[in-house]
Amino acid sequence: MKIKHLSFLILAFAAISVSAQTKKKKPAVINAAATTTASTELPRPKLVVGIVVDQMRWDYLYRYYDRYTNNGFKRLLNEGFSCENTQIDYIPTVTAAGHTCIYTGSVPAIHGIAGNDFIIQATGRSMYCTEDTTVQTVGSTSTAGKMSPRNMLVTTVTDELKLATNFRSKVIGIALKDRGGILPAGHTANAAYWFDDKSGNWITSTYYMKDLPQWVKDFNDQKLPETYLKQDWNTLYPIETYVQSTADDSKYEGKFKGMDAPTMPVKTSSLYKGNLGLIRSTPYGNTLTLDLAVAAINGEQLGQHSVTDFLAVSFSSTDYIGHQFGVNAVETEDTYLRLDRDFATFFTYLDAKVGKGNYTVFLTADHGAAHNTAFLKDKEIPADVWDDAAALKNLNQYLQDKYKADHLVLSLTNYQVNLNYKDVRYLHLDENVLKQDCISFLEKDPAIAFAVDMQKAQTADIPEALRTRIINGYSVEHSGVVQIILKPGYFSGRTPADGVATGTTHGTWNPYDNHIPLVFMGWGVKHGSLTRETHMTDIAATVAALLHIQAPNGSIGHPISEVLK
Fold first, then answer.
1. Strands 416-419 and 482-486, bridge-based pairing
2. Which of 268, 272, 263 has the alpha carbon at shortest distance from 325?
3. How many helices (H) and strands (E) does the chain have?
4. How many Cβ atoms are within 10 Å of 423's Cβ, its own excluded?
5. H or E element: which one contains 313?
6. d(Cα 356, Cα 286) in Å, to the nearest integer?
7. 390-410, pLDDT tens digit by residue?
8. Engineering a disulfide at 281: which of 8, 67, 320, 401 sits with its beta carbon 3.0 to 4.6 angstroms away?
9. 3 state SS of 555
10. In which band, very low, low, confident or very high, does the pLDDT at 40 lie, cut at 50, 70 and 90?
11. What number of CA atoms fall less than 13 Å from residue 515's CA on the CB side?
12. If 0-12 CB within 10 Å is exposed, 13-18 middle and 19+ buried, where does residue 267 land?
């Protein structure tokens, strides 16, 4: 029965009861304060769990579907609501921008996180998305904790939940990657935790606290990274039964340092030799992340309060493994089969701890991934690697020949021309003429489809979908002045002289990078699916509508009404 119908019946019965009593005696004076106290609280789930699977292509929901268990990905699809055509609203499609967009409903033009790294245009300095030199590491002696969300210019849906409940709600962010834990948790989070390769600990920064909670210390004391790595990485099933079994020992895959070939099993017990960061590139990194998520629910008693709590968890190992091995690899397939089992265990735990029907889960991704370019070329599909380092060198040489000045372009980070404004101003160069010089040169590159002046994208003679993504991705303070659009099947990288570029990457507008999974399940969510186009910016707005709170202050998304009961 829907909540509004249940409320109507309750009110109706109450009215009948009052009417019957008034016939027997005079009505008593109603105590307004008591009435307010007795009123029911606004219905909300006890806990929201936001899951981001780093580099998960939309088709991974179905590529390995036949081998998924009934209680992991299949449970999400069979009990929840799947938005089958969710698109990213901007370029470049990278981790930091993706996590920020999911939780803010905003785009780099507004939220300021223009990439994992970006150039501060006013100074020319390169900045990491979450770097913060004003804070210190908590939980390790390394510098890996000098991070915070301060570079993000807007609120998150997790911030809005804190504001709506007068900061009674608890919000925790967790990911191996610092940016995957920090950006979703927002500015007002109780904590964000990320993995420190040096110590093997989960750490945080003084932005959140001065000392780790006891439950985190106890968790770190278990030394689980070593335990997992000593087990080696074997396939769950006989390797010949894998969809990608013919691809093992493929020239398209990157091998681990210390191994002769990129094959299974991976003897992590002998490879790690104190390098605990190795766990990032194995499925055990996902399992370790989920272990901490469970510890956080227990340690912070998430979902056990009178208000809604929020746990934002990002699974980073899928990205590391995808970059190394690519889309068509046994290692990638095995990673998703193992992640499916981890999710099944986690959902069963939530049923018992919080109560089935008392929590809401959503699963999505920050971006997808392309097929390996050499693999595509061998299959007669147009593709190649674009050597951005060589392109930068050639572009600067071209400009030097014209202007007699070296290094007028600092970088091509994020597929964008970042000018050396210090020299441009010193030489009194006309920026508009310089931009046009860059565009004219780059358009001759056979790998480049378009080179677009960011400030004139609205009138550029390119498809509308590209115009919109360029405009949304353009942060005046943190983006370059010219956006480079490569041809489909191309991405930046290097091709070794003695072989092919291995693994894969992401960052472009194309469907393989841009089309992401989005599934909701649990409290307040219908069962079903939707094929109309939805957007990454709609996620935060939908969660806000579910919780009856204000959308984040930079949100441009819309609630996906079909999802909600």
1. antiparallel
2. 263
3. 21, 21
4. 17
5. strand 309-315
6. 23
7. 999 999 999 999 999 999 999
8. 320
9. coil
10. low
11. 15
12. middle
- Of the pLDDT bands very low, low, confident and very high (cuts 50, 70, 90), residue 216 is very high
Contact 268, 278 (CB under 8 A): yes
Amino acid at 140: S
Residues in Cβ contact with 157 at an 8 Å cutoff, skipping those fewer than 6 apart: 103, 104, 105, 186, 540, 543, 544, 547, 549, 551, 552
The token pair that represents 32 in the structure block: 């307004």
Contact status, residue 414 vs residue 114, Cβ threshold 8 Å:
yes
Residues 237, 257: Cα–Cα separation, whole Å: 25
**Ramachandran angles phi, psi of 519, nearest 5°:** -130, 130
What's the mean pLDDT in 515-520? 98
Domains annotated on the chain, with CATH: 3-38 (no CATH), 47-372+519-563 (3.40.720.10), 384-492 (3.30.1360.150)
Find all residues with CB under 8 Å of 315, minimum gap 6, and list them: 51, 52, 53, 54, 175, 285, 286, 289, 290, 339
Q: Which residue has the tokens 């007669």?
A: 380
Pairing of strands 490-492, 384-386: parallel
**Per-residue exposure over 377-389, b if at least 16 CB sit within 10 Å of its own CB, e if not:** eeeeeebbbbbbe
Set 36, 37, 69, 95: catalytic member: 95
Please write the tens of the pLDDT for every residue from 295-347: 999 999 999 999 999 999 999 999 999 999 999 999 999 999 999 999 999 99
- Does residue 16 carry a pLDDT above 70? no
The two three-digit tokens of residue 83, written as one number: 């938005």
308 is catalytic: no
Q: Is the pLDDT of residue 22 over 80?
A: no
DSSP for 477-528? TTS-SEEEEEPTTEEE----TTS---S----SSSHHHHEE-EEEEETTB-SE
* Nearest Cα to Cα of residue 490 among 450, 535, 437: 450
Q: What is the pLDDT of residue 31?
A: 37
Cross-strand pairs, 173: 192, 312
Length of the chain: 565
Q: Is the CB of residue 200 less than 8 Å from the CB of residue 251?
A: no
pLDDT tens, position by position, 233-291: 999 999 999 998 776 778 999 999 999 999 999 999 999 988 999 999 999 999 999 99
Which helix (H) or strand (E) element contains residue 295? helix 284-300
Alpha-carbon Rg for the chain, nearest whole angstrom, is 26
In this structure, the number of other CB atoms found within 10 A of the CB of residue 127 comes to: 15
Tokens encoding 394: 């050639």
- Pick the closest to residue 27 from 15, 35, 19 (CA basis): 19
Q: In 10 A of CB 393, how many CB atoms?
A: 12
CB under 8 Å to 410, separation ≥6 — which residues? 119, 124, 418, 419, 420
